[in-house]
Amino acid sequence: MAEYICLLNKQDTIVIKPAKKTPILLRMIVLMFAMVCGVYICSVCLKQTSIHSKIKFQDIQVVERLSPDDDHGNLQISSVHYPNPETFSRAECAHNPVRYFAILSMQRSGSGWFETLLNSHVNVSSNGEIFSVLDRRINISSITQTLDKVYNLDWFTSASKNECSAAVGFKWMLNQGVMQHHKEISDYFNRRGVFAIFLFRRNLLRRMVSVLANSYDRHAKLLNGTHKSHVHSTEEAKTLAKYKPIINSTLLISDLKEVEITAAKALEYFNSTRHIVLYYEDLIKNPAKLKDVQAFLGLPLMELMSRQVKIHKGPLSDHVKNWEDVNKTLNGTAYESFLQADY
Ligand SMILES: *[C@@H]1O[C@H](CO)[C@@H](O)[C@H](O)[C@H]1NC(C)=O
Ligand SMILES: *[C@@H]1O[C@H](CO)[C@@H](O)[C@H](O)[C@H]1NC(C)=O
Ligand SMILES: *[C@@H]1O[C@H](CO)[C@@H](O)[C@H](O)[C@H]1NC(C)=O
Ligand SMILES: *[C@@H]1O[C@H](CO)[C@@H](O)[C@H](O)[C@H]1NC(C)=O
Ligand SMILES: *[C@@H]1O[C@H](CO)[C@@H](O)[C@H](O)[C@H]1NC(C)=O
Ligand SMILES: *[C@@H]1O[C@H](CO)[C@@H](O)[C@H](O)[C@H]1NC(C)=O
Ligand SMILES: *[C@@H]1O[C@H](CO)[C@@H](O)[C@H](O)[C@H]1NC(C)=O
């Protein structure tokens, strides 16, 4: 024990103790023992945390990323492409590589906002919700045809900036054929090297309020007789937020569960593709996460911007008519935290 203290307090020992022959060897042994113990404990900790993070869906943080270089048995598929569009010439950018992506999300989860952010990048061309048109997803061959056209840069929307695009894609809601044809679609993604960007919302109760309010506005048209799903001014946001939906508390828990399961299933279906998982709340709280997205897509780093304004701000209790009811229903359940969270 005395020797142990010596280690910490060298100067004293030199003065006080004319050390005997034992010290050097003993010290070395003690030191080695401590090091081995330390390494062992660290490795056990690491192992446990990594197992833990694999298991829990809720714990997946912003980046559960399979980097473009990861080996998934599809190394032979290149992640960069040199498309040769039929409708125009890529001119001086013909030699710039292009990456393919798809934003896989659900309605009212921030994907509209996220897409405007991406499109503010000079080299990104994200073509909007192209599969909202039923004809394009009526069967897998029309889906494939549409995808081929998008990734060949031959799809034209107001968002497309085709000549010098370094990443081309679109946003795709899970209920627009993604879940139904998941097998063929994930095969396509792997075959053609399409990167999947999952965007989910953590607070599914807030999402539900947004879904209900948006579907009410489809008929009510609160903004001078027009319906808007996204707004660009605080006045418009305030007007839309005036409507407080009533949430059917009988179905609340099962509805929330269903959304959660859909997201988990989608992740499982596409787990062999190159993908990244994002949460709306994390992007709001930490805009630096957008750098991860740009890195994932191999883009030159830029400041991304959106003019969209959030509609339902502040405590959720201000936005639900039968709040007490909802509070009581979720109190003590796994979804209790949804009552408080800010975004
Ligand atoms: C898919 O739908 C298109 C358009 O409705 C149709 O022309 C085509 O025959 C269908 N293909 C298959 C394989 O069912
Ligand atoms: C991005 O776009 C700019 C402007 O069109 C172009 O000069 C540049 O080469 C593009 N970068 C990449 C990586 O494609
Ligand atoms: C609605 O009409 C009012 C009054 O005419 C006007 O001030 C406001 O800007 C309009 N809002 C929209 C969204 O057009
Ligand atoms: C809630 O949904 C259930 C099942 O669809 C229905 O029976 C019930 O009337 C609804 N409650 C309200 C308040 O709308
Ligand atoms: C993907 O999910 C399937 C089904 O759950 C599983 O068998 C497979 O191991 C998973 N693959 C990866 C790469 O996680
Ligand atoms: C919420 O649950 C706690 C116990 O879990 C209970 O004491 C409290 O009264 C409940 N609140 C409401 C509003 O039901
Ligand atoms: C839910 O109800 C309880 C009891 O009335 C209250 O203390 C609590 O603040 C409420 N929670 C929210 C988020 O409003």
From TrEMBL:
Protein name: Sulfotransferase
Keywords (A to Z) from UniProt: Membrane, Transferase, Transmembrane, Transmembrane helix
Enzyme class of the recorded protein, top EC level: transferase
Domain Sulfotransferase, first and last residues per copy: 103-313
Transmembrane segments: 24-46
Highest taxon listed in the record's lineage: Eukaryota
Record has Translocase as a keyword: no
Short name of one Pfam family: Sulfotransfer_1
Family: Belongs to the sulfotransferase 1 family.
EC number(s) on file: 2.8.2.-
Gene Ontology MF term list: sulfotransferase activity
Keyword hit for Lipoprotein: no
InterPro entries for this protein: Nod_factor_sulfotransferase (IPR052796), P-loop_NTPase (IPR027417), Sulfotransferase_dom (IPR000863)
